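To: structure desk
From: M.T.
Subject: fold request, one chain
Message: Could you run this one when you get a chance? Sequence is below, nothing fancy, just the single chain.
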Amino acid sequence: MIAGLIIFMIMSLSACSPSVVVKSPTSVGAPGTEVGEVGPTLMKEYLIQPGDELDVKFFYNPDLNESITVRPDGRISLQLVGEVMAAARTPRALTALLTHEYDKELKQPDITVIVRSFGARVYVDGEVGKPGELELNGPLTVMQAISRAEGATDKAWKEALVIRRIQGKEPLVIPVDIDAVLSGSDFTQDIGLVPFDIVYVPRSPIANINLWVHQYIRANIPLNPSLLIRP
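Reply: Done. Structure tokens follow.
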């Protein structure tokens, strides 16, 4: 009877699969495109983020040179000009802004902004070899992020989820068909990531079944060997 109960539970659970569908990958754009509120899938030019370490160098006034970290509010504090919003600007745009501001204080402001280290991160979790955070210092796709996290485990489901935060709105959940990318049938599934995306690789249904059987059947119910199903 116990064996029959196990078979019934396995058949019931195997019919279930992750079904969170909020936005398809194609609706957020293929790599290299830009899409409205969701943000660029791949950044054409890097935007400064909180946590970035910047070098601000003055060619004719080296005494004003500074190494500074962008604060969580996106601002930096500099001599003579005070607080300046650095986040969401390219290094080129910030250079132009600082040149304009220092033009009021210096005769010949020749300024260069260099990003020394990057505060932007993405996070990979679930069934990967090494879950954790990854530095986002350039274009990075879902599959590249999973690869940098030492790849998906043999318990991974064929679909990953990208959780993207949009300011003032509910987080966007984007399902990504890993099998379609690996087989080469649909590379548009391998979307680019933006700062603070979370890539989650869930367990496959059969892996969940095996875990459930181990935790709630084998570990708690003493089975009679004569009742076990043999191939």
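Reply (cont.): The longest strand covers residues 111-117. Let me know if you need anything else for the meeting.
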